[in-house]
């Protein structure tokens, strides 16, 4: 089966498998049955088998899954076995917080942080100096970068995203509270924090009506 046919719901579940398997590894668990994994993850065993069958299975009848192998394989499917250079555009509170966070763990290395505010120029966040945004095009040309994190205000987000696209950025992690309209060649993952909090608000108001938090 080609990757194109994998449903987005399956892809969304992969990081969670990866996380649980990582925790099992930390606890020196060598193998696990789909039943045990399903109990821990609160999904059905058949869901796990179906999901993993999309990529060839990985389990053995009567043995279950080898935790390390499955963890590594899911990591490869997610592309975590290669380091990705990442830039952050917008070094406000959120941009700086993200720049401070350790995404190297999963292979994303922040190599550039950009802002329009000259007062931020030269300020180092986790060892990376904030640069002025007018140097961004050249920076992208000089480095191998496919991923950009967008933490600029809503008004600026679309035009910056379009520029990033023309400069060769292929993936945008968008925290600006707006939808970006880019060609299909650019992957966009929106993280709209307000909207996430609004769904929490809904859950609080309608307590117990939504069963799972993922
Ligand atoms: P945050 O929203 O992350 O808490 P903030 O409240 O400090 O940050 P915002 O107004 O949201 O500020 O802007 C986020 C950052 O984006 C700011 O540091 C701002 O200077 C920067 N910014 C605004 N316009 C641009 C632009 N065109 N290019 C690059 N950075 C920009």
Q: Tell me the domain tally.
A: 2
CATH C-level category of the largest domain: Alpha Beta
Main sheet characteristics: 7 strands, mixed
**In the CATH classification, which architecture of the largest domain applies?**
3-Layer(aba) Sandwich
CATH superfamily of the largest domain, called what?
NAD(P)-binding Rossmann-like Domain
Radius of gyration, whole Å: 20 Å
> Which small molecules are bound?
adenosine-5'-triphosphate
Uncertain runs are none
Structural account:
The chain is built from eight helices and ten strands. It has 214 residues and is α/β, with parallel strands linked by helices. The protein has helices at residues 8-26, 34-41, 45-53, 67-77, 93-100, 136-142, 154-166, 193-205, and strands spanning 31-32, 59-60, 64-66, 84-89, 108-115, 124-125, 128-132, 147-150, 171-174, 187-190. Helix 5 (93-100) links the parallel strand 4 (84-89) and strand 5. The protein folds into two domains: 3-77, Winged helix-like DNA-binding domain superfamily/Winged helix DNA-binding domain (Arc Repressor Mutant, subunit A), CATH 1.10.10; 84-195, Rossmann fold. It is globular and about 60 Å long. The model has no long low-confidence stretch (mean pLDDT 92). Strands 6-7-5-4-8-9-10 form a seven-stranded mixed β-sheet. A three-stranded antiparallel β-sheet has the order 1-3-2. It binds adenosine-5'-triphosphate.
